[in-house]
Amino acid sequence: MAANAQGVAEAPFVWHPATTAEAVQLKASLGAEGVFAAGGTLLRTQWESGLAAMPNHLINIGAIVELQGLQLDVGSGRGSFGAMMTLSDIRTSPIVNTRFPLLTEAARSIAAPSIRNLATIGGNVLSMVGDSLPALLIYDPVLHWHDGSSGLEEPLSEWLSTAAAHPAWKERLLLSVSLTEPALDSNTKRFVAYHKVGRRDAFTPSVVTAAFSIQLDPDNRLRDVRLAFGGGQTIPHRLETVEQFLIGKPADKKIITEVYSMIVEHYEPKGDAFVPVSYRKKAAANLIASELWKAAR
Q: Is this prediction's pTM over 0.85?
């Protein structure tokens, strides 16, 4: 187990474990004094803004081979993304673009290229408000952890619903995120879209992020509807009430108008001093209504 001292006064001591077991062992021994670090983009933002104190120890997991890359099971349509896979690698991967196109679009919208070269999918997930999360939620995502003694699997949606109130997950190491392609019926057509609305065109925090996946049957009725929203400090989530309402309905003007109203009613984003809740609700509803119109044409 190797470590290097820092030359800057009051900087954290950085450890460099070679395996996941070694990293988890370090975390167990350091406790709250040690923090896992990957690309470090989120940590730096938190330190600079005063949202988190700089720890005494950083556990650099960047060299752990087990956390790298993408593994695809073609038969099941399941892809496993190592927690250390960078957003740049996701954005440029032909496999991701073919199998999980919403994630490609989400990665393209996050920060500047220099940040994407460092930022990882694991870090974006663990922020709890990362712009990749609505796209991930479309693909039935599962988090895979090392908890110190064994592996642990947890649906991303369940983790998001409890992570803020129950921070015990900070003692675990995220290994990977697995996604599953939605099955496509031979008689249906699939339509997908990802949108990020910000206060300016590029390199800006999101106001609303929305991911959309539907299938239309030959009668122009909606099947396998999946809608996920996030943005700003809103914890991303699927809008299951609206999804269930849409299944089996025709993609026509009446239904699209109803869906707009339902999203405004059921979507509960967090507002701030710059963008109120009412604007975020209407923006989210407009995005989905627009995509439904495109699909129905």
A: yes
Which residues 6+ apart lie within 8 Å of 59 measured at CB?
Answer: 15, 17, 23, 26, 27, 30, 34, 35, 36, 37
> Minimal CA–CA distance to 103: which of 196, 225, 241, 202?
196
Of the residues 130, 154, 180, the one at which a domain ends: 180
Question: Is residue 110 within 8 Å of 132, Cβ to Cβ?
Answer: yes
105-139 pLDDT, tens digit per residue, is 999 999 888 888 889 999 999 999 999 999 999 99
Our count of domains for the chain comes to: 3
Q: Which of 178, 65, 44, 53 is nearest to 123 (CA)?
A: 44
Strands (DSSP E) found in 11-56: 13-16, 34-37
Which CATH number is 100's domain given? 3.30.465.10
Closest CA to 115 of 44, 207, 201, 206: 44
Report the distance separating Cα 27 and Cα 33, nearest Å: 9
Residue-wise pLDDT tens digits, 225-265: 999 999 999 999 999 999 999 999 999 999 999 999 999 99
Same domain (yes/no): 173, 72: yes
The answer to whether the CB of 235 falls within 8 A of the CB of 154 is no
Helix (H) or strand (E) holding 110: none
